[in-house]
Design a protein that fits this description.
The complex is a heterodimer of chains A (about 110) and B (about 525).
Chain A lengths: L1 H14 L3 H26 L9 H19 L6 H26 L2
Chain B lengths: L2 H32 L2 H8 L2 H4 L3 E2 L3 H11 L1 H5 E7 L3 E7 L6 E6 L5 E6 L4 H11 L6 H26 L3 H5 L8 H15 L1 H27 L5 H8 L19 H11 L4 E8 L7 E7 L10 E4 L6 E3 L11 H14 L5 H28 L14 H30 L7 H52 L12 H27 L14
Antiparallel strand pairs in B: 1-3, 2-3, 2-6, 3-4, 4-5, 6-7, 7-8, 8-9
Classes of the chains: A mainly alpha (about 110), B alpha+beta (about 525).
Chain lengths: ~110, ~525
């Protein structure tokens, strides 16, 4: 009986903590990933960067990615992990964007 | 789903909701009302202004004489296409609050009229966009974008919290003794069934309010500093027509402009032509209108050269071949926010979805308060927590203050017409006076008494709307009037007042005879 209750309560403690750190990681990391995603959309879709209203759709892609990542940031077990994972994802995202800009931008 | 995940998102839902809820209530209630902006404008426009029209065929003569006599109109004037082949022309003089309109008298001489018509509908629209947050339009939009980020979080977390019991709870509205259960069921069913609408609103408001910030970051990391040139080259509102040295600056007839637009998009119905820089090289005319068959940005529009009738930018003209797939997607993002498609059924749909959204935020606050309720043990009603007294007073003060303020400022558009010099300043004064006084009243009287008394106020001022029309109909000597084309406003206000009266009765009954271990009972202290 006692063993059973230890598991969930321990888990509960792991998720419901580091609120500020996780939130800030989600806000900053989500915005960065949104920008990287919009850059990949702009560079990898057909047509030049200045094709009519492509910049609009690229801007509109940022809010859903941003809010999605912010929402997911509460699933990390700690604030440090949130910063590490989202930081890593941003590095990967912007590295891909740099490659895409270099090779695909017309 | 793991219970700890549910618990985390419940916390996220609670705190994002309580921070964003009241600003969103104002935005949604005012937004629902704004769906009928044109009808509200009709309602506050005195009958004299309806006479300031001329046959569309006369438009070239009216335009020519207006531009000659009134240099301010050269900067910008608006030609509206009115029903039955008529048109009206108006412009703004710098430093004057009212618009001026021009017509021709029987001898073909120019007559100008100062229009004192109220801008109540625009005021309510700005209230919708900024929630009335002081500091100017940009500050208000920026704050609402941040509020919308929280709103987006609240939507995701709310769905996650509800998911495990979705099938069980969705179609169960348990009306009964457990009031919290009933409010929660109502909150859930409204939230889930209008979720797509809310997702659209949350995402689009972040885009509207933070687009400049997003663009400036994107310019640096994606476009290498070329974005502003792209944006300027594609600007669908402003451009300069190509200047031919020694070319004519004589305007083509508005009928030719309409024909040029129709040639591009036969089903599009132009409604207004906004001329900029008329008479000078590089002038443009912005043609706005509607084609309800399309998800069009602001109903659809095009920019033309008013001299040659050549189309300069038609990327947002529905049914034209000028827009590409990106433009269509952009149009859809805007149209889905504004409900500028599908005509009247969609307008009404957005109206009710907006009201349902307002209910969602109001019920969310109620649930926050109920979750913190201390139950009765023994004979005395227990003292509730300070935070719940505070939240109860704030919730009824802000929500009812907003509703009453909008009714009052709209009614003033008719009641004060011709009686005050600067009606637009009065709209702001009246709204904020009612809104702030309601909040103060709710804090002085407490949530229980405050909600009953403020509902009485809301019912009363909402009744002023049809009363002003009725008085105008029966006694035109009062300077008021009844506008049959806007009778829907009177009918809706009457129904609204009926709903508020019903809420007033139910709230008063609950405060007097309901359980007293609550911030909503009459025996509750004010704080």
């Amino acid at each position: 009986m006692t063993l059973k209750t230890v598991g969930p309560s321990k888990e509960r403690n792991t998720l419901s903590r580091d609120w500020l750190s996780k939130t800030l990681a989600g806000v900053a990391g989500g915005f960065g990933l949104g920008i990287a995603a919009s850059g990949l959309l702009a560079c990898l879709t057909p047509g030049a960067l200045d094709v009519q209203n492509k910049f609009q759709v690229a801007m509109w892609l940022v809010p859903p990615v941003w809010i999605g990542v912010m929402s997911a940031s509460f699933m990390f077990r700690s604030g440090v992990r949130a910063w590490a994972w989202l930081g890593g994802a941003n590095v990967a995202g912007f590295a891909m964007l740099a490659l895409a800009r270099h090779f695909f931008t017309r | 789903m793991r219970s700890d995940v549910i618990r985390v998102y419940k916390t996220v839902h609670t705190w994002t909701g309580i921070v964003a809820g009241l600003a969103l209530f104002i935005a949604f209630y005012a937004g629902a009302v704004t769906m009928f902006k044109d009808t509200l404008n009709e309602w506050v426009t005195p009958p004299a202004a309806h006479a300031e029209v001329f046959p569309l065929a006369q438009a070239p003569a009216v335009i020519e004489q207006t531009l000659a006599a009134h240099p301010a109109a050269r900067r910008q004037f608006t030609l509206r296409i009115e029903p039955a082949g008529a048109a009206s022309l108006s412009w703004r003089e710098p430093g004057k609050p009212q618009r001026f309109a021009a017509t021709l008298d029987a001898t073909g001489k120019l007559e100008t009229h100062a229009r004192g018509a109220s801008n109540a509908a625009s005021f309510i629209d700005v209230l919708h966009m900024t929630a009335g947050i002081p500091g100017g339009f940009d500050v208000g939009m920026g704050v609402m974008a941040v509020v919308s980020l929280l709103y987006g979080l609240a939507l995701v977390s709310g769905v996650i919290v509800l998911l495990p019991s979705l099938i069980k709870d969705l179609f169960a509205l348990r009306v009964g003794k457990n009031l919290k259960r009933m409010w929660l069921d109502a909150h859930n069913v409204v939230g889930i069934l209008s979720l797509p609408f809310h997702v659209v609103m949350a995402l689009s408001v972040v885009a509207f309010g933070l687009s400049d910030t997003i663009f400036s970051v994107q310019d640096r990391v994606i476009y290498g500093g070329t974005l502003s040139a792209t944006v300027q080259a594609q600007n669908p509102y402003y451009a300069k027509a190509p200047v031919v040295p020694g070319g004519s600056t004589t305007l083509a007839s508005p009928l030719q402009i309409v024909a040029a637009v129709k040639q591009h998009a036969p089903e599009f119905e132009p409604a207004e032509l906004i001329y900029r820089g008329a008479g000078a090289p590089g002038a443009t005319v912005f043609v706005g209108g509607d084609d309800p068959r399309y998800l069009a940005r602001s109903g659809g529009f095009a920019l033309l050269d008013p001299v040659t009738g050549r189309v300069l930018n038609a990327q947002f003209l529905p049914g034209a071949a000028d827009g590409n797939a990106w433009s269509a997607a952009t149009s859809a993002f805007f149209a889905l926010h504004f409900g500028s498609y599908g005509g009247e059924p969609i307008q009404w749909g957005y109206f009710f979805l907006g009201l349902a959204g307002a209910f969602l935020f109001y019920s969310g606050n109620l649930l926050w308060i109920e979750s913190r309720r201390k139950l009765e043990r023994g004979t005395d009603a227990p003292r509730q927590r300070h935070a719940t007294y505070f939240m109860a007073a704030l919730t009824v003060g802000v929500t009812l203050g907003c509703v009453a303020g909008i009714s009052a400022t709209l009614a003033a558009g008719k009641l004060l017409n011709g009686r005050v010099a600067d009606l637009s300043a009065w709209h702001a004064r009246i709204y904020y006076a009612v809104f702030l006084a309601s909040i103060a009243w709710a804090f002085v009287r407490g949530g229980a008494r405050g909600s009953v008394e403020l509902l009485a106020l809301t019912t009363g001022v909402t009744l002023l709307i049809p009363v002003a029309s009725a008085v105008g109909w029966l006694f035109p000597s009062t300077g008021m009037w009844f506008e049959p084309a806007a009778a829907g406003v009177d009918v809706c206000a009457l129904i609204g007042a009926g709903c508020f009266a019903w809420m007033l009765r139910a709230t008063a009954k609950r405060a007097a005879t309901g359980r007293q271990d609550s911030v909503w009972g009459y025996s509750a202290r004010t704080r």
